[in-house]
Amino acid sequence: MRHVRDHGYPAPRVFDAGNGWLVMERLEGTDMLAGTRKTPRGVTSAGKLLADLHRRLGAIKAPEWVPVGPGPAGDRIIHLDLHPLNVMNTPDGPRVIDWANTRRGDPATDVANTWSLLACGEVPGGRVDRALAVIGRGLLLRTFLASLDRAAALRAMPALVEWRLRDRNHTDAERQRLRRLIR
Ligand SMILES: Nc1ncnc2c1ncn2[C@@H]1O[C@H](COP(=O)(O)OP(=O)(O)O)[C@@H](O)[C@H]1O
Ligand SMILES: [Mg+2]
After folding, report:
1. pLDDT digits over 99-143, tens only?
2. 105 beta partners
């Protein structure tokens, strides 16, 4: 988090950190989607912002000590959880939180990861809420991908999905959708 902040990236300020703990700036605000108007324009601007946060992070080189992550080799910082719920809307602009998965890799892997989450993740709520959320998420995904390198993300997808499938938190339905995504 300190490294990316030093490179101008909007992560919370870190005051102190040790092995397994960290004291950081407390942000004011809510996640990016809670603050997004549920209109086509609100959703497309969220997609563009998310793409921009990916592009900016993908420009930052990883220090030597950052462990190698899944996917094609690369020398950049990849967050591996850079989705709307980990972007907070604050009075000072967006801030990216939840850096626990951070590795060294190819930015296309980060794009593939967010793609897989938006395409395969479970949507909570009742039937109608879920149906609406799935439509909104489809639009979010299309605008997110519009300005990014889809072909590179697709090349990174099989290894990314392998890595995701090792995560025990996924439901069976999510696992099935992840396998379908690489097919
Ligand atoms: N620096 C922060 N300031 C204020 N709230 C935070 C901060 N970091 C995390 N949170 C809140 O805690 C929640 C969980 O934190 P997060 O790092 O995303 O962990 P996880 O999603 O793995 O539970 C976030 O969704 C956010 O609401
Ligand atoms: Mg989180």
Report:
1. 999 999 999 999 999 999 999 988 878 888 888 888 899 999 999
2. 76
Q: What's the structural domain count of the chain?
A: 1
Is 6 inside a domain boundary? no
Residue closest via CA to ligand 1's atom 14 equals 98
| Three-state DSSP class for residue 82 | coil
pTM: 0.95
Ligand 1 near 98 CB (within 6 A): yes
Residue type, 150: R
Is 24's pLDDT higher than 90? yes
Closest ligand to C-alpha of residue 29 is 1
Query: pLDDT class for 47, splitting at 50, 70, 90?
Result: very high
Residue span of the structural domain in which 128 resides: 30-181
Residue nearest to atom 24 of ligand 1 (CA): 86
**CATH for 92:** 3.90.1200
33-69: b or e for each residue (b if 16 or more CB lie within 10 Å)? bebbeeeeebbbebbebbbebbeebbebebeeebeeb
